[in-house]
Amino acid sequence: MRPLRRPVLAVLSGALALGGLTACTEKSDAKAGEDGAIGVTAADTTCDTTAKTAKAGKVTLAIANKGKRATEVEIVMPDGRIVSEKENIGPGVSYTLTAEVKAGSYEIACRPGMVGHGVRQKLTVSGKGSAAERDPRLDAAVSAYRDYAQDQADQTLPKVMVFTDAIRAGELDAAKKAYAPSRIGWERTEPVAESFGDIDPKTDTRADGLEKGQKWTGWHRLEKALFEDGKIGAEEKTLATRLDKDLKDWQRRVGRAVITPTSMANGAKDLLDEVATGKVTGEEERYSHTDLVDFKANVEGAEKAYTLLRAVAKTNDPDLVARLDTRFAALDKQLDAYRPSPDSYEFTSYDKVGEARRKKLSDGVNALAEPLSKLAAAVVGK
Amino acid sequence: MSADEQGAHGGPSRRNLLGWGGAGLVLGAGAATGTALALDDGDAKAAPAAAVPFHGAHQAGIATPVQDRLHFAAFDVTTSERADLVALLKEWTKAAARMTAGHAVGEGAFGADEAPPDDTGEAYGLSPARLTLTFGVGPSLFTRFGLEDRRPDALEELPAFPGDHLDKARGGGDLCVQACADDPQVAVHAIRNLARIGFGTVAIRWSQLGFGKTSSTTPGAETPRNLFGFKDGTHNIAGGETAALDQHVWVPEKDGPAWLAGGSYLVARRIRMNIEVWDRTSLREQEDVFGRTKRTGAPAGKLAEHDPVSPRAMLPTAHVRLARPAAHGGHRILRRGYSFTDGTDGLGRLDAGLFFLAYQRDPRTGFIPVQRELARHDALNEYIQHVGSALFAIPPGVRDAHDWWGRALFTAPAKD
Q1: What three-state secondary structure class fits A239?
Q2: CA-CA-CA-CA torsion for A353, A354, A358, A359, nearest 10 degrees?
Q3: Does residue A228 sit in the same domain as residue A371?
Q4: Is B115 at the interface with chain A, CB within 8 A?
């Protein structure tokens, strides 16, 4: 766990001022197309809208779910950030969503089943307040990263359920086996989760990260019960259910995280810093010794952010990109030596990794983290 | 050494077998060359704030006046690409030239908001503090990059000495950089920035901080004391002692290889002192062990520090007697050691001692024979232990802005 790092907003020149995006929702029975509202007809595979343009200011969506599944409708900025949303609109239900929107390019997204990228329509808002100039490649990168973060959360929940179900069933071995896999998606996108401030302390705090009076909950509390104490009691079962709940909260909020090109780049570096301070030392997974699984997931998450930003970074600093390509490959190769095959997440138990090899891993992390610290500047350009 | 004498110094113990290369070498050197004093001491008056020239025939940080503080670092090369290493050495040299002149690395300590600054910034606003950066290469470097045929015969890992208790994590290394400065922050800053520039190409293997220089290369300067409270470095080779430097410190062209001409060899030893034991040893015993008076530093039986040594006035196991150059064919070495303390160990004992640094023309006639003798017989062995060890070849000086550390080694024809 790391202290909350505030996402860098100011440096993204032309970022729409968040302060101007006050969103509100109100329940109404308004029909699609009435009162200047934009009609949105959501179904299981389609998302039809009655207008592609709107005037800046208050924009109203008159939503009707004609599909068979509950859906979610959002107004989305080009970088994937949600301006306003309504979740859980049941089949046959209508809803009116109102939001204050500045000039710029948006999408209206319907997400049947409330998962995935959804079906989208463009919406251009014009009028008072101009949409500042943005690099569409960076918007695309942020949008893709947001999808990645959402996917990781979506895929993590079922794996967490395997873990927590085993605890609730009192199956010690099954729970131990499911522990590390349940953390991979989280570890890949940890800076996003940490940006909320309140989720990480509930789910990923270690014993020494507790403040006085703070109750220890989350993965590592369960890790200790399973791997150190070797027992599952009533308390652990309660904590398992609590972990489910806290991670569902994470999954629900990922779409609203403030993500910018620089916060992506810094997030990638932060993931390496997590490795350097927690994983390489064996502190993170002190009971289960599954540090290398987290290590790999952190590197994968960093690599994902880097890959998405790579084209822009290459324009601004080709030498840096060449170096990062080499160093990512080198660290990946180094890690591969600790697992039976490149698609396995059965990594060597970290207590079996001696000091000399830990030093080499640490050197590998430093070798990558140093140039990675320059990615944000390369993304912003001169 | 008779059994009686051994008994007089506490009897045989494990510590009796341990070696010493520090203070005694300094004192011993003085014993043989006590007259080499009337020398150019111009450098001695250098203001502490001044910058030491980086370019020259020899690297700074050897014969230049000893500064107060040290940060020494040994690096492992982690790349297998020779071009990467060469690129790093060029970048290092550029950074070293800037830092020794008192400038920040690259574009400085303050740059674009989104990137970490090129320079870490903790030396911003400080004077150059006479910073010197001295670069060397270890024997292990030559087994890669096709350099095996350029490895000098003298550059071979030091032999095991009786009583050595070496920690691998405090010894060896493919490369080294010795940073000396009058301000510890300036020395630490230099190593920190070089390490950072080197990430991915080299990695720090071990490093050592030092304070309280234990020897001087300036004849006029006050002779420093080591942590045992004894004067040390009374007659070290002085910076202006050209003939002695040529004879004992600089590698001449005829010694070969060509890339090392004008360079030197550096022996680094971390010597732990059993401080608490020493401190409850009687003054008589302490003085007998060294063969010197504690107050003035005079050799046994003499009045003043610079008086010539009379071996016969000392015990056969006295440190000075065993270490003096006269007992080793007149060979001398130039010492630049520092005291160190890394706090206390888990038992509450001061983790302290001497970080011994010695420059010489050839370790086979310099450090090795002296240490062999000391490791066997020195009375001081009861109070010390050698825990870290490394040997490096120190290339000649960087000539100008186009030259770089190790250029001759990496660009010379395969056969010298």
Answers
A1: helix
A2: -160
A3: yes
A4: yes
The three-class DSSP label of residue B167 is coil
pTM exceeding 0.90: no
For residues A196 and B16, the model is more confident at A196
The reply to whether B200 touches chain A by the CB within 8 Å rule is: yes
Please tell me if residue B303 touches chain A, with a CB cutoff of 8 Å: no
Give the number of residues written for chain B. Answer: 416
* Residue ranges making up the domain that contains A177: 136-379
B160 contacts chain A (CB < 8 A): no
* Chain B residue numbers touching A363 (CB-CB < 8 A): 76, 78, 199, 203
Q: Say if residues A137 and A381 touch (Cβ distance below 8 Å).
A: no
Q: Residue B5 pLDDT > 80, yes or no?
A: no
CB within 8 Å of B4: residues ≥ 6 apart: none
Q: Is the pLDDT of residue B28 over 70?
A: no
CB contact under 8 Å between B114 and A8, yes or no, is yes
Show residues of chain A in contact with B203, CB under 8 Å: 359, 363, 366-367
Higher pLDDT, B45 or B274: B274
* A273 located within any domain: yes
Name the more confident of B377 and A195.
B377
Helix ranges restricted to H, B272-390: 275-279, 283-290, 319-323, 367-377
Residue A305 has pLDDT above 70, yes or no: yes
Whole-angstrom Cα distance, residue B61 to residue A311? 46
pLDDT at B222 over 80: no
What mean pLDDT is predicted for residues B113-136? Answer: 94
Residues B207, B212, B215, B217, Cα dihedral to 10°: 90
Check if the interface score ipTM surpasses 0.95.
Answer: no
A327, A369, A374 member nearest B115 (Cβ): A374
Q: What is the CATH number for A75?
A: 2.60.40.420
Mutate to test the interface with A, among B199, B201, B204, B206 (most CBs of A within 10 A): B199
Domain shared by A234 and A153, yes or no: yes
Mean pLDDT score of chain A, rounded to an integer? Answer: 87
- Two tokens, residue B303: 């009045």
The pLDDT value recorded for residue A86 is 84
**Min Cα separation B91/chain A (Å):** 15
Q: Does residue A380 sit at the B interface (CB-CB below 8 Å)?
A: yes
Considering the domain architecture, whether residues A188 and A270 belong to the same structural domain is answered as yes
Query: CB neighbours of B30 closer than 8 A, spacing ≥ 6?
Result: B233, B234, B235, B236, B306, B309
Q: Do A108 and A158 share a domain, yes or no?
A: no
- Indicate if the pLDDT at residue B34 is higher than 80: no
Distance CA(B292)–CA(B301), nearest Å, equals 8
Q: How many helices (H) and strands (E) does chain B have?
A: 10, 9
Q: How far is A266 from chain B (nearest CA, A)?
A: 9
Percent of chain B with pLDDT over 90: 75
